[in-house]
Amino acid sequence: MALNWQVATVTALRDETPRVKTLTMFVPGWNAHRPGQHVDIRLTAEDGYQAQRSYSIASAPTDQPLVDLTVERVEGGEVSPFLHDEVIVGDRFEVRGPIGGYFVWDGAAADPLLLVAGGSGVVPLMAIVRHRAQVGSGAPCTLLYSSRTPVDIIYAEELDRLAARGGGLRVIHTLTREQPLGWTGYRRRIDMSMLGEVLAQTGTMAMAFVCGPTPLVEVAATSLVGLGLAPSQVRTERFGPTGA
How far apart are CA 233 and CA 113, in angstroms? Predict the structure, then answer.
């Protein structure tokens, strides 16, 4: 069934990092999305010129008809700089969605979850984390998250808070470019050795979702299969390069 364009109204804006912002939109008649899905945004200029981009949904389905999109600023881009610099609360633009049926998790499965993210690839995985918490899922969940520096960690405080609840969520960070004094976590890009250490605690029954720039996704997916996961247990989604 074809999806129709709908008019969304921006209700809130929040800076996540110096380069990443979350837009909360009210979308009348929104069809509940599944964690991992995305939407298309279409902007139309006064002269009729249109620009369209796809963005992952960060919010849980239970938050509808409010929908969160977390957008990384891409220098030289047509859409993300506008969303960062020009959009204010009350602005309206067109959205179409939700879109996607492969990279999704519905909350009913009891198998452990392994979420692997690089940079803004954490956005659709955050929808999974939030949905898991809101429905009270008992499935153990591990998030392995690669960021450049501490200030580049998207949702840092919320992830700390959710992990501290003791509900089976474990968050593991690796910082690739700069680490704070006393840092005891990983200090490199995600590789097979790191995934092996994480998987040793998660187990090979885990369902893995990997999202980030193409090099990270390829390394992680290949490594996880090499470590014993079946290809059907590894779902991937690729973003543009973030350097995480």
Answer: 10
